[in-house]
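Thread title: Can someone regenerate the structure for this chain?

I was given the following input by a collaborator and told the matching structure tokens would be attached. They weren't. Posting the sequence so someone can regenerate them.
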Amino acid sequence: MSIVNLLRAASLSALFITGGAYAQTVGPQGETATPTAEVSVPDDKVEGLKAGGHRAALLWHDQSDFVNAVTAGASDEFARLGIEVVATTSAGFDAAKQRSDIETAMAKKPDIILSLPLDPVTSAAAFEEAKAQGVKLVFLSNLPKDYKHGADYAAIVTDDLFQMGKQAADALAKAMGGKGTVGWVYHDADYYVTNQRDNAFKTTIENDYPEMKIVAEQGISDPARAEEIANAMLLKNPDIGGIFVTWAGPAEGVLAALRANGNKTTKVVTLDLSEPVALDMVRGGNVAAIVADEAYELGRAMAATGALALIGEETPPFIVAPAVTATAENVGEAWHQSLHVDAPKSVMQAGK
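Best answer:
Regenerated them for you:
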């Protein structure tokens, strides 16, 4: 999911695990991942759902292109199943506002709620009424404190975190010809989503590309410091061949540093779609690739999971959506695959 959202959510969240390297994506409590492609409502259950007069509420943490895509995926799946969406809200990263949104939505008697809990402790209390009334809860990336799968919620749905990091490493290796020095700018916080993405990049470089070496590592918690961090990295390693940046916001700062240094050769890869970063990529700048999740598919899977729980079907605890690598050659296709909308006109025109 969008790391602008994740960073802000993580700053409120107490549900962390220590960062570490994994060979595959795992959930916040070590859950095994189930691909979204394996989560669907059987055709023979659709008519029964349509006849049920069911309702759903989408109670989001913020408003963004990413959230819009998740909403579209969920709304289309609910429409297919005859489930009415009775509320769509944005809490603006305010846990108190999210609690108020939940209370307001409950007055509309939803059978399913999709949401990203902003704060585990506050959210645990905020969703208590919905849980007590048997509402099927499906969470995006975060989990309320002490909630148990099956009894309290249907599933957590998020990105295939390992694949996002791995694809970034593969893309950088391709751009660098499989050899050279690398800088690693990772998210300096204990948050399972960013930790796994970042570490998957590092693990892939170290294990799969023996002629590539990570010579500079720097954590970042404030995206505003990205240019400063990149300048320091370039000062010590002026001939560095490539840089991984944990998400697109700080990648803009890294690009600013490269331009200020007159550096046109160091390749950059990052995660999550961004118009400014994509513009650099299609114009033949430093950016070699951007790896994103399939946000629309996240929403579809969340809706399907809620519907399955509603009809008493067993649901996996942790579900992941595929990753997609955008390059200058496929940016329009990749943008649509991720968000189900056209890439910005500026990006498509610059690539002509």
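The first strand starts at residue 34 and ends at 35.
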